[in-house]
Amino acid sequence: MTLHEPAERPAASASAASPIPAIALPTPAAGRPANPLAALRAFVVKTLNIAEWEARKLAHDPTDLITRSVQPLLWLLVFGQVLARTRAIGTGSTPYQDFLSPGILAQSVLFLSIFYGIAVIWERDLGVIHKFLASPTPRGALVLGKALSASVRALPQAAVIYVVSLFLGVGMNWNPLALLGVILMIVLGAACFSTFSVIIACLLRSRERVMGIGQVLTMPLFFASNAIYPINLMPGWLQVIARLNPLSYMVDGLRALMLASYTSVLGLGVDFAVMLGVTAALVILGARLYPRLIQ
Hints:
Layout: H1 5-16, H2 36-55, H3 63-68, H4 70-86, H5 96-113, H6 116-126, H7 128-134, H8 139-167, H9 176-204, H10 207-223, H11 236-244, H12 246-258, H13 268-289
Helix pairs in contact: 2-8, 4-5, 4-8, 5-8, 5-9, 5-12, 6-9, 6-10, 8-9, 8-13, 9-10, 9-12, 9-13, 12-13
């Protein structure tokens, strides 16, 4: 046996290994950035790689975006129009159709994101999660990248609701900073609820269970919020729950940013702070639980 033979065998086996989609496998030296800024840059790059890989799936199934647009249209064109005529829900000086539109946008983001954990279970069954966990990519980047990809699916919903709201005569705020704020709030909302769904998937590890829990939680989260009626119309116990519900802060922030004549009830700074804090906490928890998917 010659001295160079043992070195050749690992090289041959390494070339046969299948690559991980959209993620480069750095050398050990490259995997340890020399300073915190380099570490942060590497984390951001890997997070965006995961998000871009997830977002590219839309090109293979664009019909998903079309079918998901049906439900918010029904809420705006049927539910909203009927209740606006009955004047059954008092919304002050804000017309009910104006009041409802941001709530339906938040509802669309919630419904789209809360079942995101099912896709993670599918990836585990296909062996994709095993490859991700075998790579040097930080667990936080894996979870945050998937959370950001959920917002890519949510943004087309926002475009549809903006067009329909304009058609219905809703007084929209077209200030560029307000539009940027709407995009940021949608990203935070989608990241928050999709990460929550990933955590459920890590704990339950079954498509059927994740689907069942998602169906159980969706309607309570939606109706125990200010999406379709103001918080001050709720009974006292429900007001407490609504103020603990992240969806209420998302809806309040969207109303303040989307509508031309609406002032945030909870405080726009509070809305963003709560959504950012909850999302960050869920990403940290999701990163810790992520390896449980393959156990």
